[in-house]
Amino acid sequence: MVNKIKILLVLFMLCICGCATVPVGENIATYSIGGVTYYPLATLCDLRGVTMQYDPLTRIASLAKDQQRSTLRVGDALVLVNDNVLRLNNPVDIWQGAIAVPRQYKEQVFDILFRKDVLAHRRAGIGKIKLNKVVIDPGHGGTDPGAIGKSGLREKDINLDIAKRLSSLLKAEGVQTMLTRSTDKFVPLSTRVSIANRAKADLFISIHSNAARSRALCGFEVFYVAPSVSDSKRAMLTARTTALNLKDADFASNSQELKTIIWDMIYTNSRAESIELSRSLCKIMDSSIDADILGVKNARFQVLKGITMPGALIEVGFVSNLHEERLLKTSAYREKLAVGILEGIRDYSQEMALVEMASK
What we know:
Order of helices and strands: HEEHEEEEEEEHHEHEHEEHHEHEHH
Strand content: 15-25%
Largest sheet: 6 strands, mixed
CATH architecture of the largest domain: 3-Layer(aba) Sandwich
Number of strands: 15
Number of domains: 2
Strand order of the largest sheet: 11-10-12-15-13-14
Distance between the termini: 12 Å
């Protein structure tokens, strides 16, 4: 418990600054051709370690990395990806003497085909996730569809799909998982909280999709429980209803006052760790998805107020934004989000391990 309090103090000093609102971190120049965003192909190849061969007579470029290949031709909207045809909405073009590819090609080929091994190497380099159990909460469900996009895309479906993908990724890492819902059914917020608390998990992740009146608003953001939520009041209620079950704990007294004090310390520590988790998720996503990172924020969400472990509520994107709605429809982008969340959890667990070592 003493070490936990030390960790708390360190985390509040380090984490309260949050995560800034910044675009994706590769700093690639973009061009607007006919109102469409284009990227310089040579720059993309350099950043991802992709070999490019270009024949100026046929105007055909051949890309390769490991076992992955793609072939495209300037002026054509049809490209080959591992011998499969992909039809782009806009053709490959030339800008200032260099080949430029539309944003769709970057997202559907470079960000997936030439990105997976980068994430795999990063996972291998960082090490195992130092957590035993994670509760994953797919927001909404059943009679509660959540936000609905212009095309009819329902938030509840997005949330459940990403949650299942994240669960599979965590299990592959040896981490136990529990979903508050695994099918399209309505689960009350209080029940979700009870499921999480009974599981005695190390972490709670609630997955949501956002919406706004302005269709221009887009991006990824993470919430932790607001400072205005009283730890003391939560502690008093929890002390009356929940057993402590602390490992290696030996108390001379088991009074209600003592339980309240301990729960107050646990909640305070959990908030600090939740901030660190939120920062890790933002940091990793900044280099994993081509979207604005709206940053770490606090809120009085019921699921965050009720849980007794560190947790965060993730808004993966805006279904009200036409571009993000199109992305969220695709299994490839949902997989990318699940992998990014996995890597954020890994980063958080490694940071916690380092802080705990430093406090001993």
